[in-house]
């Protein structure tokens, strides 16, 4: 059923290896940055369309931090606001 919304718009989570300071959020169109305990940064928030997503990815490339993942979030999934990812043995193992 058509909603009038671009099918490529939505909320995304982009994960990179390394930490970015919160001041970088302005550079990523106001998306939220969360430094995780596992040494990664989660960048999440709304993206208008694929062109905007590619713009964010190009700016991210310029930081030099390795890209881990890009995930389109389910619109019904609750927003994570400065929430730390709980430790798991698989992810936090040395």
Overall description:
The chain is of the alpha+beta class and 94 residues long. It has a domain at 18-65. Helices cover 19% and strands 29% of the residues. The chain has helices at 50-63, 89-92, and strands spanning 10-17, 32-35, 40-47, 67-73. The chain has a 4-stranded antiparallel sheet with strand order 2-3-1-4, with helices on one face. A hairpin with a 4-residue loop joins strand 2 and strand 3. The longest helix is centred in the middle third of the chain and has 14 residues, at 50-63. The N and C termini lie far apart (47 Å). 15% of the residues are buried. The model is unreliable at 81-94 (pLDDT under 50).
Strand content: 25-35%
Beta strands, count: 4
Q: Tally the helices.
A: 2
Largest sheet: 4 strands, antiparallel
Order the strands across the largest sheet as they lie in space. Answer: 2-3-1-4
Q: Uncertain regions: pLDDT < 50 for 5+ in a row?
A: 81-94
Q: Give the rounded overall mean pLDDT.
A: 79
Tell me roughly what share of residues is in helical segments: 10-25%
Global outline: globular
Order of helices and strands: EEEHEH
Rounded radius of gyration (Å):
14 Å
What would you call the structural class?
alpha+beta
Distance between the termini: 47 Å
